[in-house]
């Protein structure tokens, strides 16, 4: 009787691809035979994952309680729910040409060992200051993750011992089986459980990592944050995720950027905004205003009769565009300050001004 794959992986029937993958990785590493796990349990976990990670197989399983391939192994569905789905003809064997394998792998999708063994992607937040985001910065970051085992350099083999071609799959990483069914002879392939799809087995497993090729540890890397990055953006650092099983492909690291606010500027896209206060006489008579940009100070000519709320644009003093040349602008809003406390003399003068 087919097993409940969702129960095996400990997930709900509505689990998404990520949840399935996470559950699988966790269980597979817990029950890996090289780590003393039971091989039947490990097989069961792999079987559940192979079905649930493949959307076509999963929907067959959800609908019929087994996949088309499983049904074939058992001699077919009694009612053949796949309609007139069947093959005539014979298996071409190793002679090449377009055989059943090709047909089946195109229908069900070949087992992607590369993706299966690839180390997981990591994600980490990184806080940068406003100016660091504007001008770019280089940061040292430390990540704790699975790195290649230093003793065996990730191969899983005890130093000095040989790495052999997997005797079960002959280095293919895949096990192909041919079965006679009511549909004819059918070939299926699955990841080799002896070598986990790597095609190689260490003669003597590394004593440090028990043959997995991985060792958890800290690693510090330099990351270059490009000028113009904004809050919430992600940077991908290729190859700095976790190392895969026994030296197979490494995952990527994603850095989620958090930009601290500035007390001087408000950023919108690549433009910067700020306010400047001037006095009523300055607004009325006009003046030259010195204002700070992110590069230094500039002078703006405030014409006589400037109203409160007037906006001046200073071009090319905004944030550099991300990954291209040029930069945004800075906008200065002028606020005319009305004095709250006046001296006797000032009152006198203002009265005269009003009467004039
Ligand atoms: Zn090792
Ligand atoms: Zn193998």
In short:
The protein is α+β, with helices and mostly antiparallel strands.
Main features:
four-stranded mixed beta sheet; 15 strands; HSP40/DNAj peptide-binding domain; 24% helix; single chain; binds zinc ion; 356 residues; three-stranded mixed beta sheet; Helix Hairpins; alpha+beta
Structural features, described:
A hairpin with a 2-residue loop joins β10 (266-268) and β11 (271-279). The protein has helices at 5-9, 17-30, 39-52, 55-64, 68-73, 100-108, 113-117, 130-135, 280-285, 344-355, and strands spanning 122-128, 137-148, 163-165, 174-181, 184-191, 200-202, 214-225, 234-237, 253-259, 266-268, 271-279, 287-292, 297-302, 311-314, 330-337. The longest helix has 14 residues, at 17-30. Helix content is 24%, strand content 28%. The strands form six sheets. The chain has a four-stranded mixed beta sheet with strand order 10-11-15-14. The protein is built from ten helices and 15 strands. It starts with a helix and ends with a helix. With 356 residues, it is of the alpha+beta class. Among the domains are: 1-78, DnaJ domain (Helix Hairpins); 266-355, HSP40/DNAj peptide-binding domain (Sandwich), CATH 2.60.260. The model is unreliable at 75-114 (pLDDT under 50). The site of one zinc ion (ZN) has 8 residues, from loops.
């Amino acid at each position: 009787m087919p097993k409940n794959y969702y129960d095996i992986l400990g997930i709900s029937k509505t689990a998404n691809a990520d949840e399935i993958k996470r559950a699988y990785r966790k269980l597979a590493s817990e029950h890996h035979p090289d780590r003393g796990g039971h091989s039947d349990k490990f097989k069961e976990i792999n079987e559940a994952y192979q079905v649930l990670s493949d959307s076509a197989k999963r929907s067959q399983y959800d609908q019929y309680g087994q996949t088309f391939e499983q049904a074939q192994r058992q001699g077919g569905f009694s009612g053949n729910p796949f309609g007139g789905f069947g093959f005539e003809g014979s298996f071409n064997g190793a002679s090449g040409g377009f055989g059943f394998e090709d047909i089946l792998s195109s229908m069900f999708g070949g087992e992607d060992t590369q993706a299966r063994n690839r180390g997981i992607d990591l994600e980490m937040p990184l806080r940068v200051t406003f100016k660091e985001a504007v001008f770019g910065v280089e940061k040292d970051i430390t990540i704790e993750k699975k790195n290649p085992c230093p003793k065996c350099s990730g191969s899983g083999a005890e130093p000095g011992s040989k790495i052999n071609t997997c005797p079960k799959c002959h280095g293919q990483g895949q096990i192909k089986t041919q079965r006679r069914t009511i549909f004819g002879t059918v070939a299926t392939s699955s990841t080799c459980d002896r070598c986990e799809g790597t095609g190689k087995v260490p003669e003597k497993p590394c004593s440090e990592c028990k043959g997995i090729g991985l060792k958890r540890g800290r690693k510090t890397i330099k990351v270059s944050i490009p000028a113009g990055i904004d809050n919430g953006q992600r940077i991908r650092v290729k190859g700095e995720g976790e190392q895969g099983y026994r030296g197979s492909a490494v995952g990527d690291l994603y850095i989620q950027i958090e930009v601290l606010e500035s007390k001087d500027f408000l950023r919108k896209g690549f433009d910067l905004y700020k306010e400047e206060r001037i006095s009523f006489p300055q607004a009325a008579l006009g003046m030259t205003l010195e204002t700070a940009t992110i590069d230094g100070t500039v002078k703006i000519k405030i014409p006589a009769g400037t109203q409160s709320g007037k906006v001046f644009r200073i071009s090319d003093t905004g944030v550099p565009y991300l990954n291209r040349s040029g930069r945004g602008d800075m906008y200065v809003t002028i606020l005319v300050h009305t004095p709250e406390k006046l001296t006797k003399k000032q009152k006198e003068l203002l009265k005269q001004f009003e009467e004039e």
